[in-house]
Amino acid sequence: MGTPSEPFGTVVSEIGVNIREFPSTDSSIVGTFPFGAKIGLRSKVRAQNIDGNDIWYLLRDRNAWVAARHVANTGNVPFAKDAGSSGAAAGGGASG
Q: Staple partner for 83: which of 14, 20, 60, 78, CB 3.0–4.6 Å?
């Protein structure tokens, strides 16, 4: 799989990152990305704080979330209200 167009993120957590239904660790885990995975990002919201970082990214290819604490972004990721995304929710986990 090649590098997605900007904005995208690279998973920097050595144990990977959980993909969440909403931007909160209380939300269901719907998948995972391994360390080094490159993922398309649609927008971001402020939600649950994970180790000092309260940003969560909405994935480009599905309505699911990852904690920014575990993802290094490349390119400008707009806030959901600026991107016209519908609804903010929660996602992430022990590793986002």
A: 78
The pLDDT value given to residue 87: 44
Whole-number Å distance between alpha carbons of 71 and 87 = 21
CATH number at 8-81: 2.30.30.40
Mean pLDDT value of segment 34-60:
97
Query: pLDDT tens for residues 57-91?
Result: 999 999 999 999 999 999 999 999 876 544 444 44
In the chain, domain spans: 8-81
- The token duo for 31 is 């998948």
DSSP state string for 38-93: EEEEEEEEEEEEETTEEEEEEESSSS-EEEGGGEEEES---BHHHHT---------
